Amino acid sequence: MKTTGLITRRRAIVAGLASIGGLAAARLPRDLPPSYGNLLRMGDTLTYAAHRTLLPAGSLVREYSVGDLTSFPAIGTTNPAVSVKSALGEEYRRHQAGAFADWRLAVEGRVARPRAFSLAELKQLPSRTQITRHTCEEGWTAIGQWTGVPLSLVLDAVGILPTARFVVLRSVDDWIDSIDLIDALHPQTILAYGMNGGDLPIAHGAPVRLRLETQIGSKSMKYLRRLVVSDEFDDGGMSGSIQNGWAWYNGI
Amino acid sequence: MDEAGGHARWVRVSHWIGAASLLVLAVTGFVILMAHPRLYWGEAGNDLTPALLELPISRNHQHGGWDTPRPFFARPGAPVSASRTVHIFNQNGWGRSLHFLAAWGLFVTGALYLVGGLSGGHFRSRVWPGARELRPGVVGRHIVDHLRLRIPRATGGPRYNVLQKIAYSLVIFVAAPLMVLTGLAMSPTIGAAFNWLPRLFGGHQSARTIHFVAFVLLVLFVLVHVAMVWASGFRRQMRAMTVGE
Fold first, then answer.
1. Closest B-chain CA to A43
2. Which of A35, B66, B159, B162 could be disulfide-bonded to B133 (CB atoms 3.0-4.6 Å)?
3. What is the pTM (predicted TM-score) of this model?
4. How far lies A202's CA from each of A77, A79, A91, in Å?
5. Domains with residue ranges and CATH for chain B
6. pLDDT tens digits, residue range B113-129?
C-alpha cells in the first residue's frame, strides 16, 4: 500500500499520541515512590504518576460555608497521653498539662535554617482558615473548619534546599509518613492549630495536625512533632504503612 | 477482522479484560463498603450523622463504639465530635489499591473499546437498537418469549435481539461511564482539579451512593447475562467469545 506523503488516520493518531506523550513525559515526577516489589504499590504509583502528569498542580478543593459544618468523628489515636506507652506519650502528657506552652515542632533536614517552632511562633505566622471536606478511606466524610499556617510559609521560613523533594512527617503516636512538594506547597496544605473556631481538640490532633486536602484523611497526620525535609523518598519502608496494606499515595 | 457472524477479536479481548476487571472491582468494592456500610446523600455523612441507608453488612474492622459526643458550639443541634474507642486498625488498604488497579484495567480497555466501537460502526450496526426494533410490539414479544424461557439458540456472534441490545447499550453507555465518573468524583485530587464533578452528582456522598446503586445494577446484569449464556448454549457461546468461530 503506498501512503507516502499522505496523512493517514493512523499516522495522525500516532503523531497525536506521541505529542501528548512528549508533553506528559515532561511533567512526570522525577522521583516515583518505590513499590517494594508490591503489585498494589505499582498500581498506586501509576495513579500517582497519572495525577501528577495530567492534572494541574495547585488547583483548590471546594471550600464550604459555616452552615455546612457537620459532626466529625475522631478515629485512630484520639489521646496519645493515654494510648502511647512510650517516652513520647509521657512527654505529650506533660505538654498537655502545660497547655502545650513548651511543645515544639522541629523542622529540619534539607533546610538552610533548621528550627523548632513553638505553638505561639506558628500562630504569629500568617494564618489561613478553610472549611473543607475530610474524606476518610473507610468511606465517610465530614466537613470542618480549620485554622493554621500554610506549610509553604513554614518551609519558606526554614529555607528548603533546591535538592529537596519530600517532607517526612513524624507524630507523637510514632507514625511516619511523607508527602511530595506539590502537596506540601499546595495553598490549602496547612499546619492546623484551630478547628471550628476553637483550639484544635486533643481527639483531632492537638496541638498541631496537618491538613492535606488533596488526599484521603489519613494523610492529614495528627499530633505532629517533627517535619524532616528530604531529598529522598521515605515512608518508613517495610515497617511503614505498607505493613497495614495502606498506600503511600492517597489522592484517590 | 473477519466478522461473518462471529465476535471480532478486539471485542473478545476487551470482553474478557473488562470481565476480569469488573470481577475484581466488585469484590474489592464490597471489601471497601464493608469498612463503612452506610450510605448518605450530599457532601458529608459519617457515624455521627443520620444515614440514608444502612446496609445489613457486618463491618470488617472492630471498635468499641463511641465515647460521649461533645458539641462544637453551644447551641442546640450543633455538630458534635466523638472519639472511637478500642481501635483496631482496619487493613482495608489492599482492597482500595486493588480496586484502583482494576479500575485502570477497566478504564483503559473501556476507552479502547469505545474508540473501536464508535469508529468501526460496531455500536451503530450491531449494539445500538434501531427504531424498528424498539416498537412496543417487538419489545413486548421478546419480553414474553424470555419470560417463557423460549431462549433462541446461540448465534455465536453479534446478531443480538432487541433486549440484548438494550441491556448492552445501558451497560456500555450508561452504567459503565457512570461507574467511572462517580468513582473519579470521590477522589480528593480529581475533585480539586474538577470541582464540578462531585457537584454534578450532588456531592461526594451522593456520588458514593450512586456508585453503589450502579454496582448493584451491574451485578444484576452480569447474573442475567451469565444465565442467558447458559440457557442459550453455554459451550457454543463460550467458544464464540474466546477462540471465536
1. B101
2. B162
3. 0.92
4. 10, 6, 14
5. 9-36+93-241 (1.20.950.20)
6. 999 999 989 999 999 99
